[in-house]
From TrEMBL:
One of its GO terms (cellular component) is peroxisome. Signal peptide: none annotated. Pfam families: ECH_1. This is Uncharacterized protein.
Length: 142
């Protein structure tokens, strides 16, 4: 099933990773940052973190700044960089936008098995490093 993350404040380290694990990410424009603190703390990143960032953040410079500079990325910048799908100005607007998006996606009534196969094929390197075999669609469903 499609997943939606609604980031209402800071999403640091594993919180940033958790947000990126979703299909869609919405964030507030007036508060909160996305931040990978590991470089500032002197902690190496597990392989699956860096593979996730390569899979989900298309801009090489955005990845570099998040992982190697510890840049704190605010909502508007995250949207401009393509890290999040949208920003809203208040907690209520963000909650409503997240619910609306989830309802719109659910209304499509996609076949969950097919959605999973497409998602896995979209992120083969990430699935590989996590030990998730890429599923093949059942031919009877095609």
């Amino acid at each position: 099933m499609p997943t939606v993350a609604v980031v209402q404040g800071h999403a640091a380290a594993a919180g940033f990773v958790l947000a990126l694990c979703h299909d869609y990410v919405l964030m507030r424009s007036d508060r909160g940052v996305l931040y990978m603190s590991e470089v500032d703390l002197g902690i190496p990143l597990p392989d699956y973190f860096t593979v996730l960032f390569r899979a989900k953040i298309g801009s090489v410079s955005a990845r570099r700044d998040a992982l190697l500079r510890g840049t704190k990325i605010r909502g508007a910048d995250a949207a401009r960089l393509g890290i999040v799908d949208g920003v809203k100005g208040s907690e209520e607007e963000l909650k409503d936008a997240g619910i609306l998006l989830a309802e719109q996606l659910a209304a499509r009534k996609w076949d969950g098995e097919i959605y999973k196969v497409i998602r896995q094929s979209l992120y083969p390197e990430l699935c590989g490093v996590l030990g998730l075999g890429v599923s093949k669609p059942v031919l009877s469903k095609l």
